[in-house]
Amino acid sequence: MSDKKNPMHKVEDVKRHLYDREDHTVEHHREGILHQERHNIPKEWQQTEMTSKKAKTSSIFKSFFIIAILFFLGAIIFAGYKFYQGGSTVSPDNIEINIIGNAFTQGGEVLPLQIEIINHNNANLEFANLVVEYPKGATADLSDILRLPREAIGTIKSGQRIEKNINITLYGDQNVTRDIKAKIEYHPEGSNAIFIKEKIYQVTINSSPVTISLFGPEETSSNQQINFKIVTTLNTSLPSDQAVLKVEYPTGFKYEDADVKPTLGNSIWSLENLSQAQPMTVNISGRLIGQDNDEQVFRVYVGTIKSNNQTIVDVIYNSLLHTVYIKRPFLETRIVINGEDGEYFTVEGNKEVKANIVWSNNLSTKVDDVQIIAKLSGNVFDKKNVTSDGFYNSADNTIIWDRNTDEILNSVQPGGGGSVSFDFKPLSVIASGGAIRDPQVVIEVSIKGREPSSGIEYSEINNFERKVVKILSDFQIVGSAFYASGAKPPKVETETVYKIVWTLSNSVNTIVGAEARASLPLYIKWIGANTNGENVYFDEVSKEVVWKIGQVKPNTGFGSLSREISFNVSIKPSLSQVASVPLLIKDITLTGKDAFTEKIIKSTQRSISTLIQNDPKFNVGDERVVN
To answer: What's the pTM value of the predicted model, to 2 decimals?
Structure first.
């Protein structure tokens, strides 16, 4: 075979040309060129193909949807047929409940009713129970429902009629309707499912067993005394001899008094003596505290109370609400005692009290002929110790300010105001001998004037303010020391024993939580105490003597009633104390709470040294340490 036809030679030639730097031979072989070719396809064919695909898909979904709807409707028809027409199925519509009785009744009286149950189904009702519900009391609270004990009926056969008699008692105002609900709970024959059929029967209340009427203001000013009259009238007969009248006061109301004393607390009155011939009337007085435009709601109930909580009305026979709005007074006064403005004031007995009456005109018009009157009273008021910039009339214990005492009161412009003052000194409670209880001075201030209305006519406007000044009890402790044994006068490095006595005194108010404390100096040794049954102990760490006094009655220390303890301490003076008068006990502090004024009383007494002048055996010089 020749070299030209040998394939290997061609390969070798290619390699030689490829790696030969001097070879510049390049051969180009032109191959065929690719061109885009267009084909014309009729548009009608494209649309026909797409439409055909969409139609085919839509036809499948439509068929599936129609079949599903037909199947669902068929299932419903079949189920309904089986439930309502089947030989052993039960329909609630085929259960008839009839409530037979008077559609009118008097509140609080027993209403007899007959409940008729008829099973019109072709199947039996199994495990049937009758449940009756109706309002428990007279309120509109739908959750306050009374349920009679569940009555088991058992099986109600097809076509069977069941009759049950019940007695209920309804409450409410006249012409109010009450709903009585009767329910049948049952199992369809051969089923474990529970079904309910119910019937509502309405009864109208002819009259309530009791009627409540409340007479009182609908508007007042803050801290003004207000009075309410509540009248309870018996219309038929009380369902229970445990019936009560209860008043729920708003948070801003301060109860003061009632002409009929409450049975429990200050808000519950027994109605055991209420009769149709004799209504019960209760007059309540107090004060409302609040801001301008506040709404204060009083709630009044008549009913029976719970056996386990006598403050809760369980069954309500009747109730009412009364709203009082607090309005800013046209003429306003504020009583300031010793620079303080509050509802109650506390001062020490037999000390002068400074009072200011700050007044203002809150109207948009002027007020003429303004007059301010302060009346003073109380069990420790001393009419001989009153001074004022107004006219004090000791005959009726009043102080009067008008245009004769202050020209500004002749005509007060809108927003105008001022102040007047007086001083007084309460009686000493120490000298009362226990005859005074809850010592106080009451200040009642009224302000009035004339507002021009039309022409020469005037309308009178007024306001009233009341403050109570309570007197603190005089609660004191007296400490004294006596020589007991040992060196006299105290001698260096020689023991001397002293007896310390603490005696309490309390004037007019009960003291609670009382306690006395004192500390011993470092060089004083605690020996022991004669407690007289009192709670006294010595704290070794703090070196404090503590007397847990507790309650202290009024007039303690002034008559036969006394409280006293004693304890012994000793001293061995050092050379550094020669010629000094050492302290035996220091920092005696007494604390307690005045139960009437609700204020904490705290007092301190002087320290006790070896200068025991109260000891009848004491001689001058016995107080100083000798060598």
So the answer is: 0.56
